[in-house]
Every structure is written in structure tokens, then in C-alpha cells.
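User: My collaborator sent over this chain with a note saying "see what the structure looks like." That's all I know about it. Can you take a look?
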Amino acid sequence: QTLAERGDFDLFLLAGRYHLLDQTSLSPFLTTCLERGASVVCGGPFNGGALMGTGTWNYAKAPEYIVKRVALMIPMLFTVALLTFFLLRVIPGDIVEVKLRADGGNVSQEVIERERVRLGLDKPLVVQFGDWMKGIVTFDYGTSMWTGQPISREIGIRLGLSMQVAVMAAIIAVLIAVPLGTISALFRDSWIDYLVRIVTIAGLAVPSFWLGMLIILGLLSLFNWSPPVTYTPFFTDPVANLSQLIWPALAVGYRYAAVVARMLRSSVLEALQEDYIRTARAKGVFERLVIVRHT
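Assistant: Without extra context I'll predict from the sequence alone. Here is the result:
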């Protein structure tokens, strides 16, 4: 009945034996579906027996559903923006003083106040929040206090880097997780399985940023080498680009690999217990083919 009340299905097909839905609870379910505009065809017996059912969604209500979902996003986004703005304002410290008096800078209070007026920080919080929301709606994020460049340009530069690191981390995660998860399942409860499980648990427990710092320190202490600081685009110099981004991708990908490897181990163990695996082995299929093709 919950699914029928939600009404978020396009087409459902029910088949098999039902233990949770008895005849008493099934009838209200079908009745609600009919009231929601679905056409239902079913065959019994209901109580613990086989059931086949089909339903079609009333597409006339689709726009209403979409509008309702979009309308619910507006107060949620506004609440998030409100909390973000005021939480940043209650944090101790003055960003203008941090900018002008950092590293022992000797700046008069008059200069600081003039900079606060220029940035609009002397206005009431309500007015500041209104200006901030106006900038978000109009995609006018202002200029950076540190570089003087438009914020949109700064986001664009970092977005490209983040996307490249994310793609590289996903590739690393797959290359690590697939063999580890499969080997761990094939050698279940052996020292190999225990070793892989220790490695994956460590990947879940170690924060990526801390692992990244350990990698940098290890490169410095063991090889007296550190990644280049200046960013080089991939198409300008692929070697320099990869030598700089491979390490953060490795730190992030290790955690992803730990999650995927544990999930893959469970999936392979479950697949090895299936009847078709037992049948393939009984037919004399090579174990390598069974693992590669059927798990």
C-alpha cells in the first residue's frame, strides 16, 4: 500500500510467492492502485500463492508530481543557504584583518575599516544576506579577495582539476578493487582473504587527506622528490600533469577501492553459491572460465 500511495512507479510486474502480503493486506493495495488511476490485472490465489499483476501510471498526474518535487527544493535550498551564511558569520575572526595583517602586516585600523566598507561588511547581516542571495541567483559571485580574479573563473580552474582527479581515482579504484575483491572471495577464510580484508578496512579507516600527506612525506624522505607545485594542463605536458595529480588520485582511489572490493567480495561469494555455478562445474567447465564468465 505504501508503493501505491507514493505513486512513483511507471510499470510494475509482480510475480512469485508472497509471505508479507496476505489476502487482507493485498486488497487495500489493489484498491488504492485503482483509486490512483492505475489499471490492475491480477490472478490468484492471493494468500501465499502466485500473483501476477500489471499497472500503468496515470500520466496526467506527472506534471503535478514534478511541480511538487521542484517546489519542495526551494525551501530546502533557502534553508541551506541561510545556515551557511550565518554559520560563516559567527565564526570568530575578521577576514579583512586576516587578509591585511597576515604575516605581520602593519596596517592601520582606518585602512581596515575602509576595506570593510568596500566589501559591504559594515552593513547589517540581513542586508548582507540579501546581497549574497542576489549574487547567487544572478550567478554574480564577485571577485576573489586573494587573487583579484572573478570567482567563476577560479571555480572553473578548480573544477577541471577536481574532475580529472575524480576520473583518475575511479580508474584506480576499479583496477585495485576488482582483483582484490575477486581473490578475497576465491580464497575465503585463508591468509590471503584476511590480508585483503585488513587492507580494505584500513582504506575505510584512513582519511584520504591524511593518506595524501603521508604519501608526500614518504616521497620526500625516501626519494627526496615532491610533486610539482605549479599546475600543468594535461595536453600541455601529460607527464608533468600525471606526476602531480596521480598522488591525490591514489589517496582518494584507495578509499573507493576499499568500499568496492568489500562489496565485490560479497557479490562473488554469493554468486559462487548459485546453482548455475554448481552446474557449470559439474559439466567439467574449467574453473577459470567459471570465474571469469559466470561470477
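A starting point for your reply to your collaborator: The chain has twelve helices and three strands.
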